[in-house]
Amino acid sequence: MTKKASLASALLCCFIWGTTFIAQDTGMDNIGPYTFNGVRFMVGFFALLPIFLLIEKKNFAFEFNKDKKKFVYLSFSIGIFLFLGTALQQVALLYTDIANAAFFTIFYVPMVPFVVLFLFKKKVHWSVYPSVVLCVIGGYLLTNFYDATVRKGDMLVIFCAFFWALHIIFIGELVKIFELPITVGLVQTFIVSVLSLLISLYVEEINIQKILSEKYEILYAGVLSGGFAFVLQIYAQKNINPAPAAIIYSLEGVFAAIAAWLLLSQVLNINNILGCVFILIGVLLSQLLPEIKKASYK
């Protein structure tokens, strides 16, 4: 996969994630957060299964045998991080609003370069740091957080952002070795679904009729976000390092705002537009400055 294809995958991934926030919120009108996530990711698992059988099954044994222990460790860790990130985010939406959740979730952007440095002792390009600042400022303006009050659910979203950061970083490690994006998608969706459903059996009421009443939200959040978007993320990170990838993923807030404007007739004020501009500049800086430096050495 080329760098351009990776960027296209990341942008499409952001678009799906950004438009899923509403489905995540309204999808809990009749069911609990663990039930929603459990069913959502099980739908994502079954959506990816035929694609795996058609495209990736024939290459699985070769790729898996490169380093079985490492693949199991990384893919299982990715699944656990995704479960913790989605669970905390989904539960937090019960105690905070979408604006707060969207703003605090974007905190994974500044977390990624520091976690990479701490865990793997890898330095990131200097352009990442001003890009991170621009993205956080953009998220602040975009979500109208300055009109919101801090709620108890916001701390859950900050913890969620930490696990999103780990999820991005560990995917970056896995794609260096293995060409199994759909397999990893299957593993992580299965882990999230099973763990979510197990918890829901103890803390929530599972009612089939109530689940069916949220079928459209579950299908959108399951097939597109829970299934295909996370596979696109894996494809994207084949040629994009974790820190700049996290900056690109912050565009989900921009897509969410544009979708709300087009579909829900929510007006974008001047601060929202400035927020979009800040994030776009941050993304461009993180991608273009390293390339300019490379070109200067040619």
Q: What report would you give on this structure?
A:
It is built from 13 helices and no strands. The chain is mainly α. The mean pLDDT is 82.
Give the arrangement of secondary structure elements.
Layout: H1 3-26, H2 33-64, H3 68-92, H4 98-105, H5 108-120, H6 128-142, H7 153-174, H8 181-203, H9 208-212, H10 215-236, H11 242-249, H12 252-263, H13 270-296
Keywords:
mainly alpha, 13 helices, 298 residues, globular
Unreliable stretches:
none
Tell me the major beta sheet: none
Radius of gyration: 19 Å
Structural class: mainly alpha
Cα end-to-end separation: 23 Å
Note the run of SSEs as H and E: HHHHHHHHHHHHH
Q: How many domain modules?
A: 1
Tally of DSSP β-strands: 0
Shape annotation = globular
- Percent helix: over 70%
Summed over residues and divided by their number, the pLDDT gives a mean of 82
What percentage of the residues does DSSP assign to strands (E)? Answer: under 5%
How many separate helices?
Answer: 13
